[in-house]
C-alpha cells in the first residue's frame, strides 16, 4: 500500500483532482477551477495574507484555520498547474540536509 495515500494532503489532492470535471454548482473546487488560473492564484494570495495577519496578531486558533485554507488553495493551484504532491515531496527531500544559510551563500558566489 502507498503510505502517501494515508496523508490528509494526498487525500485532499485526490478529492480536488476528482472535482476537475464536477459541476461548479455542486463543488467549490470545480467552481474555483472554472474561474481560471488568475482567480485561483488570487484566492491563494488572499488566504496567505490572512495567515500573515493572524500570525502577527498571535491568534493561534485563527492561524490554524487560515493555514488549512492556504493548504486547500495551494492544492487547487497544484491541480490547475498539473503538479502532483510527489513533485513537492521530492523537492523537499532533495533539500533535506542542506542548510538554508549554505544554500543562499552558494547562490551568491
Ligand atoms: N478544504 C476545503 C476548503 N477550505 C476552504 N474552502 C472553501 O473556500 C471558500 C472560500 O470562500 P471565499 O468566500 O473566500 O471565496 P469565494 O467563494 O471563491 O468567493 P470570492 O472570492 O469570489 O468572493 C469557502 O466556500 C470554503 O468553504 C474549502 N472547500 C473545500 N475544501 C475541501 O475540498 C473538498 C471538496 O470540496 P468541493 O470541491 O466543494 O466538493 C472538501 O470535502 C474539503 O475537504
TrEMBL record:
Keyword entries, A-Z: Amino-acid biosynthesis, ATP-binding, Cytoplasm, Histidine biosynthesis, Hydrolase, Nucleotide-binding
Catalytic reaction list: 1-(5-phospho-beta-D-ribosyl)-ATP + H2O = 1-(5-phospho-beta-D-ribosyl)-5'-AMP + diphosphate + H(+)
Keyword Iron recorded: no
Pfam families in alphabetical order: PRA-PH (PF01503)
Gene Ontology terms describing biological process: L-histidine biosynthetic process
GO cellular component: cytoplasm
Compartments in which it is found: Cytoplasm
GO terms assigned for molecular function: ATP binding; phosphoribosyl-ATP diphosphatase activity
Enzyme Commission number, as recorded: 3.6.1.31
Superkingdom per UniProt: Bacteria
Pathway: Amino-acid biosynthesis; L-histidine biosynthesis; L-histidine from 5-phospho-alpha-D-ribose 1-diphosphate: step 2/9
Stretch forming the signal peptide: none
CDD domains: NTP-PPase_HisIE_like
Protein family (similarity comment): Belongs to the PRA-PH family.
Name used for this protein in its record: Phosphoribosyl-ATP pyrophosphatase
Amino acid at each position: 500500500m502507498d503510505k502517501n495515500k494515508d496523508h490528509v494532503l494526498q487525500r485532499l489532492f485526490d478529492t480536488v483532482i476528482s472535482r476537475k470535471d464536477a459541476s461548479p454548482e455542486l463543488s467549490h473546487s470545480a467552481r474555483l477551477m472554472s474561474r481560471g488560473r488568475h482567480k485561483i492564484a488570487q484566492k491563494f494570495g488572499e488566504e496567505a495574507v490572512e495567515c500573515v495577519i493572524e500570525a502577527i496578531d498571535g491568534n493561534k486558533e485563527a492561524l490554524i484555520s487560515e493555514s488549512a485554507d492556504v493548504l486547500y488553495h495551494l492544492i487547487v493551484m497544484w491541480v490547475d498547474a498539473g503538479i502532483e504532491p510527489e513533485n513537492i515531496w521530492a523537492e523537499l527531500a532533495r533539500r533535506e540536509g542542506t542548510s538554508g544559510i549554505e544554500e543562499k551563500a552558494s547562490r551568491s558566489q
